[in-house]
Amino acid sequence: MPPLRIGMLGLGTVGAGTWRVLTRNQRDIVARSGRPMEIVAVAVRDLERARRIVGGAVALTTDPFDLVNRADIDVVVEVMGGTTLARELVLQAIANGKHVVTANKALLAEHGAEIFAAAEARGVIVAYEAAVAVSIPIIKALREGLVANRIAWVAGIVNGTSNFILTEMGSKGIGYANALKDAQDQGFAEADPRFDVEGTDAAHKLCLLAANAFGTQVPFAEVHTEGITELEAVDLACAEALGYRIKLLGVARRHDHSVEVRVHPALLRSDHLLAGVDGSMNAVMVHGDASGTTLYYGAGAGSEQTASAVIADLVDVARSAACDPSERVPHRAFQSHAMADLPLRPMADTTSAWYLRIICSATPTAERALLRTLARFGLQARIYGRYAQPDHSAHHVVLTQPVAYAALRRALVSLEQLPAVQGKVRAVRVETLE
Amino acid sequence: MPPLRIGMLGLGTVGAGTWRVLTRNQRDIVARSGRPMEIVAVAVRDLERARRIVGGAVALTTDPFDLVNRADIDVVVEVMGGTTLARELVLQAIANGKHVVTANKALLAEHGAEIFAAAEARGVIVAYEAAVAVSIPIIKALREGLVANRIAWVAGIVNGTSNFILTEMGSKGIGYANALKDAQDQGFAEADPRFDVEGTDAAHKLCLLAANAFGTQVPFAEVHTEGITELEAVDLACAEALGYRIKLLGVARRHDHSVEVRVHPALLRSDHLLAGVDGSMNAVMVHGDASGTTLYYGAGAGSEQTASAVIADLVDVARSAACDPSERVPHRAFQSHAMADLPLRPMADTTSAWYLRIICSATPTAERALLRTLARFGLQARIYGRYAQPDHSAHHVVLTQPVAYAALRRALVSLEQLPAVQGKVRAVRVETLE
């Protein structure tokens, strides 16, 4: 078979990793796929650096449009990132009849509908296994492995940076700022970490998971997203004392006429499999009506870890390029005509149990007032721990029964108005995911 | 597209589950696959029972050869089990140009080479996702998701019955016989449980995993297989006290000129993800050179859980039936001409750390003799616990550094000859799997 001819946009961490793995494992990859792969051309900013990586046999250009317009490539690998130029280039590649493999979750979460529609109209493939939990073949599991199932929910830890920071906070008892600095020092967080620690990156990935799980468009801009920046060491310690761990979770759930899609920190019981996912690792759980719960675990970032997924996509492209498009796996698991456009469930209507940490006078009267206030909003709750402060107040740790978010918010307002309560109440969801 | 026409051999737990899921989720499955599926005919022993399950529209026969010879089916689903009649029927179906989907690990572990060769010669697909860790798409992950990797090892908990029994023994502190009875009462073990508890079933599955991971034939009959029948409650308790759990593991490792494939109980650190896989659940870990370690978790048995995998295979067959065979995913991950025939590494040469439980006089002299005997065979070891017995002896729990199995066995013979040592030494491997 003739080689699959690849043009690559970008030669950063992921691009260089893809080059390295393709070169190192070429023999095994051909033994598996039956078809050689050749990186024909690469578009980069720094030609000299690129030349040192790929040697002399690969065409280099600083003009990415030049690359996507080349006649001698079958597939464009987009590993440059960003959503503006990358969008234009991907659409141009599609218009030129090239297949596309991308690791760009932001691009697909924000412009997926447009890009997939263009690809279908042109009869080409846009593959994106590397965009979610890199080395874990979770897109393939959702689209193919679990194809028989009506999927009730998908949830997971899909941002390695946040998980690394929370693991540091929990294991070392340090605060967010120190843990972030550790993460930055060790290369697990960017200098500007907002994209990761505020939940945006996790929300991008969750949108792709939810679309594939439920066969519906998921409007990224409307997804409820909370990050980890307001968690304190005391919260992780209180959770631990009660038998929980705090993780940044993405949770997507199918309802009859809506989908619930949310990213936020949450308490999970310490013996829950997701609670044992530490450091920069990722894991995704999927609940199907026939399969029951399955879980997928692996690296959430890294050069060769991402390359593993990029190359898996390239092999899939090589295999199905010649197929009739109707026989290919659809871009978002469901045939495009069967994709729904379910609304997002308003957050006010979503239900969770809650962990509350309330700084309050440690007197029976004050505590009765706390619980009475919660009860007034329908929150069945119990005080599980009191951690004394020097000034005779205490952190009161309360766990509630599941309650609608709207009720919880109203209860918080009232709680914070109680004379015995100091400052803001810290509220974190408790998830069971069973 | 015309429906994929299915003939089914067997309508037991898995067959009935497949019928139920296909019927219940038909709309979603078609929305995903783009192609309807129709069970045209079923071969069963009990026609009346079958008629109650599938209703009037499906042809029923008691002659399974009649089924595989029907002209109006595209694919045969073999869910009858066994290796003699099932082998003949699968080969006949292949000879008739039918694709085959099977959940039969024994059949493929023992006759896979013959069956896959016949399928390739005839240009048909034999799919078997349901044969390993049913609902978990692990065959797909190995063959497709991790296609870029040179896989160093694959290991896991792939027998739900044994895992259920070990979980019961550990959590309730009961012995093997009582735990087995619990498992039988709750439907997690057969009346004759040998196939599961002696490791045979796990070895079947591990052979399939190893073949797909390494691209080599794995001769099932030569695989080292130990079951869980000799473990005692005291071993699980001692392991727990040292921070370990005992699991029945399958471990397959690639060496330069051989493969190591073995099934046996093993200690895993309690914080290892596999140690948290409880009850009848399964999990498989794979270490690839690019991906790093990934893990796949889910149900190891069950009617609809198995059906989930059978139907995923049916959709794959529907998609790639029209493709040129060279574009299909190879049966064992590697193109057949690229499959190796590596020898199994002799067990004597395999290396593990060991847990030893030695009943021995609890005197300094006796303990010195123990450690001296171990040292004589190159075993660096430490006594980690002493659990007194009524007669002044004690269970001595020893952990060793990694050592070749041959040396361990010689050391055990000498240990058991020491005057202070009573009876047999219990020896269980300690695995790190990192």
UniProtKB/TrEMBL annotation, chains A, B:
GO BP annotations, alphabetical order? methionine biosynthetic process; threonine biosynthetic process
Stretches assigned to the Homoserine dehydrogenase catalytic domain: 137-315
Per the record, the pathway is: Amino-acid biosynthesis; L-threonine biosynthesis; L-threonine from L-aspartate: step 3/5; Amino-acid biosynthesis; L-methionine biosynthesis via de novo pathway; L-homoserine from L-aspartate: step 3/3
User: Domain of life here?
Assistant: Bacteria
List the molecular function annotations (GO) for this entry. homoserine dehydrogenase activity; metal ion binding; NADP binding
Q: EC no.?
A: 1.1.1.3
Give a Pfam family name. Homoserine_dh
Classification via SUPFAM superfamilies: Glyceraldehyde-3-phosphate dehydrogenase-like, C-terminal domain, NAD(P)-binding Rossmann-fold domains
User: Which keywords does this chain's UniProt record carry?
Assistant: Amino-acid biosynthesis, Metal-binding, Methionine biosynthesis, NAD, NADP, Oxidoreductase, Threonine biosynthesis
Could you tell me which residue ranges the Aspartate/homoserine dehydrogenase NAD-binding domain spans? 10-129
Cofactor (UniProt): a metal cation
The record ties this protein, via PROSITE patterns, to: HOMOSER_DHGENASE
The positions annotated for binding NADP(+) are 9-16
Give the family, as the similarity comment puts it.
Belongs to the homoserine dehydrogenase family.
Q: What is this protein called?
A: Homoserine dehydrogenase
* Native organism: Rhodoferax lacus
